Amino acid sequence: MKITVLSLFPEILRGFFESSIMAKAVERGLMSCELVNIRDYAIDKHRKCDDEVFGGGAGMLMLPGPLSRALEAAGSSPCPPAGEASPEPGARKRTVFVTPSGRLFNQAMAAEFSREAELVIVCGRYEGVDQRVIDRYVTDEVSIGDYVLSSGEIAALVLVDAVYRLVPGVISGESLLEESFAASGGARAAALLEYPQYTRPALYDTLRVPEVLTSGHHANIVRWRLRESVRKTLAYRPELLAAEGLSSEVRKLLREIITEGGNDEPNTEDPGAANDGR
Ligand code: 6GU
Fold first, then answer.
1. What CATH number corresponds to the domain at position 125?
2. Which has more pLDDT, 113 or 126?
3. Closest Cα to atom 5 of ligand 1
4. Residue with more model confidence, 174 or 43
5. Which of 133-137, 212-216, 250-254, 263-267 is predicted least confidently?
6. Domain-embedded: residue 276
7. Which of 39, 62, 40 is closest to 50 using CA atoms?
8. How many whole angstroms from 23 Cα to the centroid of ligand 1?
9. Residues 200, 71 share a domain
10. What average pLDDT does the structure give for the chain?
Protein backbone atom coordinates (compact mmCIF):
# COMPACT_ATOMS: atom_id res chain seq x y z
CA MET A 1 0.00 0.00 0.00
CA LYS A 2 1.17 3.50 -0.77
CA ILE A 3 0.31 6.41 1.53
CA THR A 4 0.98 10.00 0.49
CA VAL A 5 0.50 12.75 3.07
CA LEU A 6 0.20 16.38 1.99
CA SER A 7 1.13 18.89 4.65
CA LEU A 8 2.53 22.38 5.19
CA PHE A 9 4.69 20.92 7.97
CA PRO A 10 5.92 17.52 6.75
CA GLU A 11 8.70 17.52 9.35
CA ILE A 12 6.07 16.81 12.01
CA LEU A 13 5.29 13.57 10.18
CA ARG A 14 8.75 12.43 9.12
CA GLY A 15 9.81 10.88 12.41
CA PHE A 16 6.84 8.54 12.38
CA PHE A 17 7.43 7.35 8.84
CA GLU A 18 11.11 6.76 9.48
CA SER A 19 10.81 4.81 12.71
CA SER A 20 9.71 1.53 14.17
CA ILE A 21 7.17 -0.74 12.55
CA MET A 22 6.42 1.68 9.71
CA ALA A 23 10.08 1.83 8.65
CA LYS A 24 10.22 -1.97 8.80
CA ALA A 25 7.08 -2.31 6.67
CA VAL A 26 8.63 0.04 4.11
CA GLU A 27 11.88 -1.95 4.13
CA ARG A 28 9.95 -5.17 3.60
CA GLY A 29 8.13 -3.66 0.63
CA LEU A 30 4.70 -3.86 2.28
CA MET A 31 4.30 -0.09 2.49
CA SER A 32 5.55 2.92 0.65
CA CYS A 33 5.18 6.43 1.94
CA GLU A 34 5.60 9.88 0.55
CA LEU A 35 5.51 13.21 2.34
CA VAL A 36 4.60 16.19 0.18
CA ASN A 37 5.19 19.77 1.26
CA ILE A 38 2.22 21.74 -0.06
CA ARG A 39 4.37 24.88 -0.04
CA ASP A 40 6.49 23.36 -2.82
CA TYR A 41 3.44 23.93 -5.06
CA ALA A 42 3.10 27.64 -4.27
CA ILE A 43 4.22 29.60 -7.32
CA ASP A 44 4.55 33.20 -6.16
CA LYS A 45 7.80 34.50 -4.81
CA HIS A 46 6.63 34.46 -1.20
CA ARG A 47 5.35 30.88 -1.59
CA LYS A 48 2.05 32.02 -0.11
CA CYS A 49 -0.33 29.23 0.92
CA ASP A 50 -3.07 31.01 2.89
CA ASP A 51 -5.40 33.99 2.76
CA GLU A 52 -8.35 35.60 4.55
CA VAL A 53 -11.84 34.09 4.60
CA PHE A 54 -14.40 35.56 2.18
CA GLY A 55 -17.35 36.96 4.11
CA GLY A 56 -15.20 37.69 7.12
CA GLY A 57 -14.19 35.69 10.16
CA ALA A 58 -11.13 34.87 12.17
CA GLY A 59 -8.04 33.18 10.84
CA MET A 60 -6.75 32.18 7.45
CA LEU A 61 -7.65 29.48 4.94
CA MET A 62 -5.38 27.36 2.79
CA LEU A 63 -5.39 28.62 -0.80
CA PRO A 64 -6.93 26.36 -3.47
CA GLY A 65 -4.00 26.73 -5.92
CA PRO A 66 -1.02 25.16 -4.11
CA LEU A 67 -3.13 22.40 -2.57
CA SER A 68 -4.80 21.51 -5.90
CA ARG A 69 -1.44 21.28 -7.64
CA ALA A 70 -0.05 19.13 -4.83
CA LEU A 71 -3.10 16.84 -5.09
CA GLU A 72 -2.74 16.55 -8.87
CA ALA A 73 0.94 15.67 -8.41
CA ALA A 74 -0.02 13.01 -5.85
CA GLY A 75 -2.39 11.49 -8.40
CA SER A 76 -5.71 12.46 -6.83
CA SER A 77 -8.32 12.68 -9.54
CA PRO A 78 -10.73 15.61 -9.66
CA CYS A 79 -14.39 14.69 -9.73
CA PRO A 80 -15.81 15.48 -13.16
CA PRO A 81 -17.58 18.82 -13.77
CA ALA A 82 -21.36 18.80 -13.24
CA GLY A 83 -23.19 17.00 -16.04
CA GLU A 84 -20.32 14.68 -16.97
CA ALA A 85 -20.37 11.00 -16.10
CA SER A 86 -18.79 10.08 -12.78
CA PRO A 87 -15.98 7.55 -12.84
CA GLU A 88 -16.61 3.96 -11.73
CA PRO A 89 -16.98 3.72 -7.97
CA GLY A 90 -13.51 2.96 -6.65
CA ALA A 91 -11.78 4.40 -9.72
CA ARG A 92 -10.92 7.67 -7.99
CA LYS A 93 -7.89 7.59 -5.74
CA ARG A 94 -9.03 7.61 -2.12
CA THR A 95 -8.25 11.14 -0.93
CA VAL A 96 -8.88 11.80 2.73
CA PHE A 97 -9.08 15.24 4.31
CA VAL A 98 -8.59 15.13 8.07
CA THR A 99 -10.81 17.73 9.69
CA PRO A 100 -12.75 18.13 12.95
CA SER A 101 -15.90 18.46 10.84
CA GLY A 102 -15.48 15.07 9.17
CA ARG A 103 -17.06 11.67 9.73
CA LEU A 104 -15.92 10.12 13.02
CA PHE A 105 -13.02 7.72 12.41
CA ASN A 106 -13.35 4.15 13.66
CA GLN A 107 -11.85 0.70 13.20
CA ALA A 108 -14.23 -0.22 10.38
CA MET A 109 -13.03 2.83 8.41
CA ALA A 110 -9.41 1.90 9.16
CA ALA A 111 -10.09 -1.59 7.79
CA GLU A 112 -11.74 -0.17 4.68
CA PHE A 113 -8.85 2.23 3.99
CA SER A 114 -6.33 -0.59 4.54
CA ARG A 115 -7.79 -2.41 1.51
CA GLU A 116 -6.94 0.50 -0.83
CA ALA A 117 -3.80 0.20 -2.94
CA GLU A 118 -3.19 3.92 -2.45
CA LEU A 119 -4.29 6.56 0.00
CA VAL A 120 -3.73 10.32 -0.18
CA ILE A 121 -4.18 12.22 3.08
CA VAL A 122 -4.49 16.00 3.29
CA CYS A 123 -3.61 17.82 6.52
CA GLY A 124 -5.36 21.13 7.10
CA ARG A 125 -3.75 24.10 8.80
CA TYR A 126 -5.03 27.51 9.78
CA GLU A 127 -8.83 27.65 9.93
CA GLY A 128 -9.19 25.10 7.14
CA VAL A 129 -9.16 24.65 3.39
CA ASP A 130 -11.02 26.37 0.54
CA GLN A 131 -14.20 24.30 0.02
CA ARG A 132 -13.67 24.06 -3.76
CA VAL A 133 -10.61 21.86 -3.25
CA ILE A 134 -12.57 19.58 -0.96
CA ASP A 135 -15.43 19.37 -3.46
CA ARG A 136 -13.12 18.57 -6.36
CA TYR A 137 -10.57 16.14 -4.91
CA VAL A 138 -11.58 14.82 -1.52
CA THR A 139 -13.40 11.47 -1.34
CA ASP A 140 -13.58 11.23 2.48
CA GLU A 141 -13.61 13.80 5.29
CA VAL A 142 -12.53 12.24 8.58
CA SER A 143 -12.36 13.48 12.18
CA ILE A 144 -10.49 11.50 14.82
CA GLY A 145 -12.69 12.56 17.73
CA ASP A 146 -14.83 15.20 19.35
CA TYR A 147 -12.10 17.61 20.36
CA VAL A 148 -10.16 20.23 18.46
CA LEU A 149 -6.51 19.92 17.47
CA SER A 150 -4.55 22.89 16.18
CA SER A 151 -3.71 21.14 12.91
CA GLY A 152 -4.35 18.00 10.89
CA GLU A 153 -0.88 16.44 11.13
CA ILE A 154 -1.44 14.59 14.37
CA ALA A 155 -4.86 13.42 13.21
CA ALA A 156 -3.29 12.21 9.94
CA LEU A 157 -0.75 10.17 11.92
CA VAL A 158 -3.54 8.60 13.96
CA LEU A 159 -5.24 7.61 10.74
CA VAL A 160 -2.05 6.29 9.10
CA ASP A 161 -1.14 4.27 12.18
CA ALA A 162 -4.59 2.68 12.47
CA VAL A 163 -4.59 1.84 8.75
CA TYR A 164 -1.13 0.56 7.86
CA ARG A 165 -0.98 -1.97 10.69
CA LEU A 166 -3.99 -3.70 9.11
CA VAL A 167 -2.17 -4.20 5.82
CA PRO A 168 -1.50 -7.95 5.57
CA GLY A 169 1.96 -8.86 6.85
CA VAL A 170 2.71 -5.62 8.72
CA ILE A 171 1.99 -7.06 12.15
CA SER A 172 1.19 -10.59 13.20
CA GLY A 173 -2.34 -11.82 12.64
CA GLU A 174 -2.42 -13.10 16.19
CA SER A 175 -1.90 -9.64 17.68
CA LEU A 176 -4.62 -8.27 15.44
CA LEU A 177 -7.02 -10.98 16.46
CA GLU A 178 -6.58 -10.45 20.17
CA GLU A 179 -6.85 -6.74 20.47
CA SER A 180 -9.74 -4.55 21.50
CA PHE A 181 -12.00 -3.58 18.61
CA ALA A 182 -10.51 -6.13 16.22
CA ALA A 183 -13.97 -7.56 15.77
CA SER A 184 -15.77 -4.27 15.27
CA GLY A 185 -14.15 -3.88 11.88
CA GLY A 186 -15.44 -7.26 10.84
CA ALA A 187 -18.60 -9.26 11.08
CA ARG A 188 -19.15 -9.38 14.84
CA ALA A 189 -21.63 -6.85 16.12
CA ALA A 190 -19.82 -5.98 19.31
CA ALA A 191 -16.31 -5.99 20.70
CA LEU A 192 -15.13 -5.88 24.28
CA LEU A 193 -12.29 -3.84 25.69
CA GLU A 194 -9.09 -5.71 26.37
CA TYR A 195 -8.57 -7.40 29.75
CA PRO A 196 -5.69 -6.28 32.03
CA GLN A 197 -2.32 -7.89 31.36
CA TYR A 198 0.75 -8.46 33.55
CA THR A 199 4.39 -9.42 33.16
CA ARG A 200 7.23 -10.39 35.52
CA PRO A 201 7.80 -10.11 38.40
CA ALA A 202 4.73 -11.88 39.80
CA LEU A 203 5.18 -9.83 43.00
CA TYR A 204 6.15 -6.22 42.35
CA ASP A 205 6.62 -4.21 45.53
CA THR A 206 3.43 -5.20 47.37
CA LEU A 207 1.44 -5.83 44.20
CA ARG A 208 0.72 -9.37 43.13
CA VAL A 209 -0.35 -10.57 39.68
CA PRO A 210 -3.83 -12.17 39.81
CA GLU A 211 -3.15 -15.74 40.87
CA VAL A 212 -5.17 -17.36 38.11
CA LEU A 213 -2.71 -16.01 35.51
CA THR A 214 0.21 -17.90 37.07
CA SER A 215 -1.84 -21.03 37.75
CA GLY A 216 -1.28 -22.61 34.37
CA HIS A 217 -5.00 -23.45 34.25
CA HIS A 218 -5.82 -22.39 30.73
CA ALA A 219 -9.61 -22.63 30.91
CA ASN A 220 -9.69 -20.55 34.09
CA ILE A 221 -7.42 -17.97 32.50
CA VAL A 222 -9.69 -17.65 29.47
CA ARG A 223 -12.72 -17.26 31.73
CA TRP A 224 -11.01 -14.68 33.94
CA ARG A 225 -9.95 -12.64 30.94
CA LEU A 226 -13.42 -12.61 29.45
CA ARG A 227 -14.90 -11.59 32.78
CA GLU A 228 -12.40 -8.74 33.18
CA SER A 229 -13.10 -7.63 29.61
CA VAL A 230 -16.81 -7.46 30.35
CA ARG A 231 -16.16 -5.66 33.64
CA LYS A 232 -13.93 -3.06 31.97
CA THR A 233 -16.32 -2.56 29.07
CA LEU A 234 -19.19 -2.03 31.49
CA ALA A 235 -17.18 0.57 33.38
CA TYR A 236 -15.72 2.54 30.47
CA ARG A 237 -17.87 1.82 27.39
CA PRO A 238 -21.25 0.49 28.49
CA GLU A 239 -22.77 1.39 25.12
CA LEU A 240 -20.73 -1.40 23.53
CA LEU A 241 -22.65 -3.91 25.64
CA ALA A 242 -25.97 -2.63 24.34
CA ALA A 243 -25.14 -3.98 20.87
CA GLU A 244 -26.89 -7.04 19.54
CA GLY A 245 -24.91 -10.22 19.11
CA LEU A 246 -23.44 -10.57 22.61
CA SER A 247 -22.77 -14.23 23.31
CA SER A 248 -24.82 -15.92 26.02
CA GLU A 249 -21.59 -16.30 28.01
CA VAL A 250 -20.96 -12.56 27.92
CA ARG A 251 -24.57 -11.82 28.86
CA LYS A 252 -24.29 -14.21 31.81
CA LEU A 253 -21.05 -12.58 33.00
CA LEU A 254 -22.65 -9.17 32.62
CA ARG A 255 -25.60 -10.17 34.80
CA GLU A 256 -23.22 -11.53 37.44
CA ILE A 257 -21.06 -8.42 37.45
CA ILE A 258 -24.08 -6.12 37.72
CA THR A 259 -25.54 -8.20 40.57
CA GLU A 260 -22.21 -8.17 42.41
CA GLY A 261 -22.22 -4.38 42.43
CA GLY A 262 -18.99 -2.46 42.78
CA ASN A 263 -17.74 -4.18 45.93
CA ASP A 264 -15.45 -6.89 44.62
CA GLU A 265 -11.72 -6.93 44.18
CA PRO A 266 -10.80 -8.27 40.77
CA ASN A 267 -7.22 -9.09 41.80
CA THR A 268 -8.11 -11.22 44.77
CA GLU A 269 -11.29 -13.01 43.75
CA ASP A 270 -11.34 -16.74 43.28
CA PRO A 271 -11.19 -17.11 39.54
CA GLY A 272 -12.94 -20.44 39.62
CA ALA A 273 -15.91 -19.15 41.60
CA ALA A 274 -16.95 -16.55 39.06
CA ASN A 275 -18.51 -18.58 36.35
CA ASP A 276 -19.27 -22.13 37.35
CA GLY A 277 -22.39 -21.34 39.38
CA ARG A 278 -21.61 -24.00 42.03
CL1 6GU B 1 -8.80 15.51 11.73
N2 6GU B 1 -8.11 17.83 12.72
C3 6GU B 1 -8.10 18.75 13.67
N4 6GU B 1 -7.44 19.90 13.45
N5 6GU B 1 -8.72 18.60 14.83
C6 6GU B 1 -9.37 17.44 15.03
C7 6GU B 1 -9.42 16.44 14.08
C8 6GU B 1 -8.77 16.66 12.90
N9 6GU B 1 -10.15 15.41 14.55
C10 6GU B 1 -10.53 15.78 15.76
N11 6GU B 1 -10.08 17.00 16.05
1. 3.40.1280.10
2. 113
3. 149
4. 43
5. 263-267
6. no
7. 62
8. 25
9. no
10. 90
State pTM to two decimals: 0.86
106 CA → ligand 1 middle, Å: 14
> Do 18 and 156 share a structural domain?
yes
Ligand 1 pocket mutation pick from 143, 157, 158 by most atoms within 8 angstroms of CB: 143
Say yes or no: 92 and 115 in one domain.
yes
Query: Which of 99, 140, 154, 163 should be mutated for ligand 1, with most atoms under 8 A from CB?
Result: 99
Res 126 pLDDT > 90:
no
Domain range holding 205?
174-270
- Which atom in ligand 1 lies closest to the alpha carbon of residue 159? 1
**Domain match, 162 and 184 both:** no
> Ligand 1 mean position to 227 CA, how many Å?
35
Q: With a 6 A CB cut-off, is 144 part of the ligand 1 pocket? A: yes
CATH number of the domain encompassing residue 193: 1.10.1270.20
Q: Residue 15 falls within a domain, yes or no?
A: yes
Residue 278 lies in a domain: no
Looking at ligand 1, which atom is closest to the CA of residue 102?
Answer: 1
φ/ψ bin of 181: left (φ > 0), alpha (ψ from -120 to 50), beta (otherwise): left
Give dist(CA 31, CA 170) in Å, integer: 8
What is the per-residue pLDDT for 190? 53
Tally of domains in the chain:
2
Counting from 1 in the atom list of ligand 1, the atom nearest the Cα of 155 is 1
CB 20 within 8 A of CB 38: no
Helices (H), the chain: 11-17, 20-27, 64-74, 107-114, 131-137, 152-164, 173-178, 218-236, 248-260
Angle at 184 between CA 180 and CA 189, to 5 degrees: 120
